[in-house]
What does this fold into?
Amino acid sequence: MAPWTPQSTVTVGRVLLATTRKNSPVRPDTGMLTVIGVLEPTGLRAGGDSQGIILRDIDLDIYFPLSVSETAFGDSIMRRQAGSMEQKEIQLSEIWLQVRNMENVERIAGIATNVLGIEHPGLYPYGGATAKDIAEWYGKVFGFQVKEGNSSFFVAGPGPGRIEVMKAGDTDRCHIAVLVSNFEAAVAALQAQGIELEEPNIKPDNKAVYLKQTDPAGNRIHLLWRR
It folds into this structure.
């Protein structure tokens, strides 16, 4: 193995080994990973002029794609010590985005600031199945709790994520609810891209609006903010 010095790479929930060489291995508790590139030093170091911006040396970080982080670490880690076992939940502390050109920085940053993730997929009655049939199937097969509302059923387990099953509609397509932290800012970010929106549905505890265009597969998308 090539000699290493702690100049470029690593933390995701815990400190890993560090390396400055491309193709060198790093070994977290979950297995071996390979370094595919080394970033240039940023110069932003704790204790210097930049300490008001950061409180650590980010040249000691390793950056993973989210898919690798989820596969390698999941949502929790187990820390085993003599006579005890501790479980700790891993949460993201930062997300870094890469844009193709400088002109897109503000637009992408505006979207990323407000988009929290996928709140739920929405299914529709199709092929003779009713919304109740679909919701109860998920409840029976996976043990999900089924909750009926005015226009849809929601099915969910004890963990994150849920499925909405609409009572009206007849399509094999679905809709995707994108959860946002600032509804008005998210709407403005989409409109700045030239994306047209339908009339929003504003209530005290939630706000929603559908995009007029679908995704490439024909699925509808709506923003969702909820208190």
About this structure: Residues 131-142 form the longest helix (12 residues). Residues 65 and 95 are 9 Å apart (CA to CA). DSSP finds four helices and twelve strands in the chain.
